[in-house]
Amino acid sequence: MNPSRVFDIIEKHTKMMEDSIPLIASENITSPLVRRCYVSDLGHRYAEGKVGERFYEGCSYIDEIEQMAIDLTRKIFEVEHANVQPISGVVANIAAFFALTSAGDTIMSLSVPCGGHISHDTVSAAGLRGLRVVHYPFNNEEMTIDLDRTAVIAREIEPKLFILGSSLILFRQPVSEIRKIADEIGAYVMYDASHVLGLIAGKSFQNPIKEGADVMTGSTHKTFFGPQRAIIASKEGLAEDIDRAVFPGVVSNHHLNTLAGYVIAAMEMLEFGERYAKQVVKNAKTLAEELYNLGYRVLGENKGFTETHQVAVDVKEHGGGERVAKKLEAVGIILNKNLLPWDSIEDTEDPSGIRIGVQEVTRLGMKEEDMRILANFIDAAIREKKSAATIREEIKEFKKNFRTVKYSFDEFDAYRFPELK
Fold first, then answer.
1. Local structure of 107: helix, strand or coil
2. How many CA atoms lie less than 13 Å away from 316 in the CB half-sphere?
3. Is 92 left (phi over 0), alpha (psi -120 to 50) or beta?
4. Residues facing residue 135 across a β-bridge
5. Shortest CA distance to 120 belongs to which of 183, 169, 79, 184?
6. CB 122 within 8 A of CB 149
7. In 10 A of CB 255, how many CB atoms?
8. For a FRET experiment, which of 65, 87, 271, 419 has its CA 20 to 30 Å from that of 220?
9. What is the number of other CB atoms lying within 10 angstroms of the CB of residue 192?
10. Number of helices (H), then strands (E), in the chain
11. Longest Cα–Cα distance in the chain
């Protein structure tokens, strides 16, 4: 066994991404300052417990970093309480379930084909908590929850928790309307903001807590350009329950190197977030419009296609999501197949749609005119207007103009690890 083999594989992966257009909606790229935190001494350390109440000694400087993370989170999202210890979005959701529900309770959430995340369903975190899941009725044309039918069902089943936020999320969701239904039956409202956290931070999307949600969870590495971890924001009255559910509930040590990276990313959001988020939404809308003009069935036409970083396209007539995603990967366009509301959960392996996210290419400097070029690359690959090899070479040449991490204190080549200083 040779350790160099691992680094060889990493280098090959990095080269692949360097020559490709990354459009996975759940990914982003971090700045050099954030990356430096990954390999710091913090990666070796433990800090169980709260700031100032640790179970290990030697945590005074870690306390400073975590307090900075809490303060920045409260400021960015304008919330009363923030817990920054969850190490992933699913872990944050599990903690919220433990804080807000008991085993056997009923909750309402979106089904996976309608955009819901698996952690909101019985196959994942909600099921592990022992929750009974009832799916919202969904309006496929409007791509939103059917509120009238939801109110009728909720009065009948009396859920303990309403979950909003989606894995496929094109438009704002009816937080204030669900809040009214929840108040009527004495339920909580939770918003999983994992996909739109950076857009909320950049004031380009709804603020769930301000609109009535009790709790907002969110991973920090999608539209928010931090390392892979998560936050939970809540009203002050739920602070004790949330904190206890996180530790000692579902988190022990909370990966202090990426906590420091999150602090840097939060500072970047305060400085650059509004400009970045606005550009993300502009880019998504432009890409959606161009694909629509090229003849594709882009979801949300009657509502302007999207209000987020995401574009959803029904490619059933082009062979389905699996075939199209593989075709695009072959030319260097990396995205994912995706279930759409009219699909069955049994269609997971070959759904009707593809999901496109423009947050990472936006951070690499792409603007509206680049989205039009990108749409034509996608069209050429799907309709085989040129050979895959030819399109791939054109994409490699195009990508050379987008190698630098933008919206950052220290712009740097995205595919070269910065030297430590």
1. strand
2. 10
3. alpha
4. 109
5. 169
6. no
7. 22
8. 419
9. 32
10. 14, 17
11. 64
The DSSP-derived string for 138-195 is EETTTTEE-HHHHHHHHHHH--SEEEE--SS--S---HHHHHHHHHHHT-EEEEE-TT
3-state secondary structure at position 311? strand
Cis ω before 341 (30° cut-off from 0): no
Q: 49: which strand partners?
A: 54
User: What contacts 98, CB < 8 A, 6 or more positions away?
Assistant: 129, 245, 249, 250
Q: What is the CA radius of gyration of the chain?
A: 21
Burial class (CB in 10 A: 0-12, 13-18, 19+), 21: buried
Q: For residue 120, what are its two tokens? A: 């909101």
Q: How far apart are CA 376 and CA 380, in angstroms?
A: 6
User: What's the token pair of residue 329?
Assistant: 């990967």
Mean pLDDT of 386-400: 97
Across the range 139-165, mean pLDDT stands at 95
Q: Tell me the whole-structure pTM to 2 decimals.
A: 0.96
User: Which residues are 133's β-sheet partners?
Assistant: 107
What's at 186, amino acid-wise?
Answer: G
Which residue's entry shows tokens 């969904």? 138
Closest CA to 254 of 58, 33, 63, 60: 63
Q: Mean pLDDT across the stretch 89-99? A: 96
Candidates 217, 222, 167, 220; CA nearest to 192 is 217
Q: Which residues of 353-381 are buried (b: 16+ CB within 10 A; e: fewer)?
A: bbbbbbbbbbbbbbeeebbbebbbbbbbb
pLDDT per residue as tens digits for the range 295-309 = 999 999 999 999 999
Kindly state the tokens that stand for 372: 């039009």
Count the Cβ atoms, other than its own, within 10 Å of residue 350: 16
- Domains, the chain, ranges and CATH? 22-29+273-399 (3.90.1150.10), 33-266 (3.40.640.10)
Place of tokens 């066994």: 1
Under a CB-based contact definition with an 8 Å cutoff, are residues 221 and 195 in contact? no
Looking only at the bridges linking them, the beta strands covering 188-192 and 215-219 are: parallel
Would you call 171 exposed, middle or buried from its count of C-beta atoms within 10 A (0-12, 13-18, 19+)? buried
Tell the residue number behind the tokens 């969110």, with chain if given: 218
For residue 2, what pLDDT band results from cuts at 50, 70 and 90?
confident
Task: For residue 37, give the amino acid letter.
Answer: C
H/E element, 329: helix 321-331
